[in-house]
Write a structure and sequence with these properties.
Layout lengths: L57 H4 L4 E2 L17 H6 L8 H17 L4 E3 L4 E3 H17 L3 H20 L28 E7 L12 H7 L4 E5 L3 H14 L4 E4 L17 H4 L13 E7 L2 H19 L6 E2 L23 H13 L9 H25 L15
Parallel strand pairs: 4-5, 4-7, 6-7, 6-8
Antiparallel strand pairs: 1-2, 2-3
Helix pairs in contact: 3-5, 10-11
Length: 412
């Protein structure tokens, strides 16, 4: 039975969910092989709710039906123009605009001009609506059939998903918190410094990009886009940036926060922190010291299997190891987001809650006790409460239910 706990009265009280122990995360299902990808580095973690839950999440993600060219955003976008590098970076990334995404956006705008009809978006993930949708669907299927291998098809799929979401969210979603502008929660988020000796990578499925109830975005809202960096699945430029960072750090400084039961799971206590990295304080770090990379898989539980497989393929291609270095949390507990969006089971949690759990366990290591991980974990948990409150307030205003029908009760 899902028990809803009363809201915390302070940031420290928000740590209640780390005290509820649950079993280790379940391993992902095996999905069809995507095909070999170039070598890159990995660190993985948790995932958002399972794919079957996308339909259940539809009302949370419903975008108002909007014409892409007619929705003014107030920041220079939303005028029917192509996506600029500046607009792209405002959504939470420091990378240049990916070429494939720019090409998809350009094609959509050219189709719109040729059709003499405004693109309309709505529903989960800013999907195209109306006759334009049918026309675009035929064209993208034709393009898809011409692509030679599975990796090209994945890259096109990801770019198309992201391009549509960028155009459909213009003038509607806040660039930072990905909520409708009238529900923006940015003013309530309190930034916090992450220990400079570590870095989070959010390896995000494109279907979670700009998703309102996504929790991975909270990490860069709290810690900044350099300490918690977005890497979009299937976007070559993003994946290359991440793997280049892994190469600089070395395989010993990469961990995936993800349940891999094919091998004996490692815990946070098994991580080895060398002395050079530990000489840096919270804010300062030698240029010769590369951070420890912690990779979080950010997507639905079914999509996380594809994320994991792509990481594993590139890890094997780069370092020759069959298994990637995964760690599991021993004190993982239910996230506050269970109140609004239950996971398939108590042993599965949202991305931000898993990151907070990792920080709590790092705080227990004697050699890291001076790096304020408790404060950093509490900041993430506080941001989760703020997101929950913003989503709940929106539902109440729209006359929607603020509870979810429980699923998979046999696992709870």
């Amino acid at each position: 039975m899902l028990v809803l706990l009363p809201p915390a009265s302070s940031i420290r009280a928000l740590a209640f969910h780390r005290r509820l122990r649950v079993p280790l995360l379940a391993p992902p299902r095996t999905l069809p092989r995507l095909g070999a990808a170039p070598a890159r580095s990995i660190m993985a973690f948790s995932a958002e709710p399972a794919s079957g839950e996308e339909k259940a999440e539809a009302e949370e993600e419903s975008l108002h039906t909007t014409a892409a060219a007619g929705a003014g955003a107030g920041d220079g976008d939303g005028d029917g123009s192509e996506v600029s590098h500046e607009e792209w970076r405002r959504w939470g990334t420091s990378s240049p605009l990916p070429a494939a995404v720019a090409a998809v956006v350009r094609e959509l705008l050219e189709m719109e001009a040729a059709a003499g009809e405004k693109m309309r978006f709505g529903g989960v993930g800013s999907k195209l609506k109306g006759d334009f949708k049918d026309m675009e669907d035929k064209k993208h299927r034709a393009v898809y059939e011409t692509l030679g291998d599975s990796d090209q098809k994945l890259q096109y799929f990801s770019a198309r998903q992201i391009g549509c979401r960028l155009l459909g969210s213009r003038g509607y979603l806040c660039h930072k918190c990905w909520l409708p502008t009238e529900d923006c929660m940015c003013a309530n988020i309190v930034p916090c410094n992450l220990w400079r000796g570590m870095k989070f990578w959010l390896y995000m499925h494109p279907k979670d990009f700009l998703r309102q109830n996504n929790t991975g975005k909270l990490l860069w809202q709290v810690f900044g886009i350099q300490a918690a960096q977005l890497c979009l699945f299937g976007i070559q430029e993003h994946e290359d940036i991440m793997w280049d960072a892994f190469h600089r750090s070395g395989k010993g400084k990469i961990s995936f926060l993800y349940p891999n039961k094919s091998i004996i799971p490692k815990s946070v206590k098994d991580l080895k922190f060398d002395g050079s990295s530990l000489t840096s304080d919270l804010h300062e770090m030698s240029s010769s010291d590369e951070p420890f990379n912690f990779v979080l898989l950010d997507g639905t539980w079914s999509n996380s299997a594809a994320l994991y497989r792509r990481l594993k393929e590139r890890w094997t291609a780069k370092w020759g190891d069959e298994d990637i270095p995964c760690i599991s949390l021993s004190t993982l507990s239910a996230s506050v987001m269970h109140k609004l969006r239950p996971q398939p089971a108590w042993d599965r949690t949202c991305t931000a809650a898993a990151a907070a759990g990792l920080l709590w366990e790092l705080n227990l290591l004697p050699e890291l006790s001076t790096y304020e991980f408790e404060k950093q974990a509490e900041a993430v948990e506080c941001s989760l409460d703020i997101l929950l409150d913003a989503l709940t307030t929106r539902r109440v205003r729209l006359g929607r239910s603020i509870t979810r029908k429980q699923r998979h009760n046999r696992n709870i």
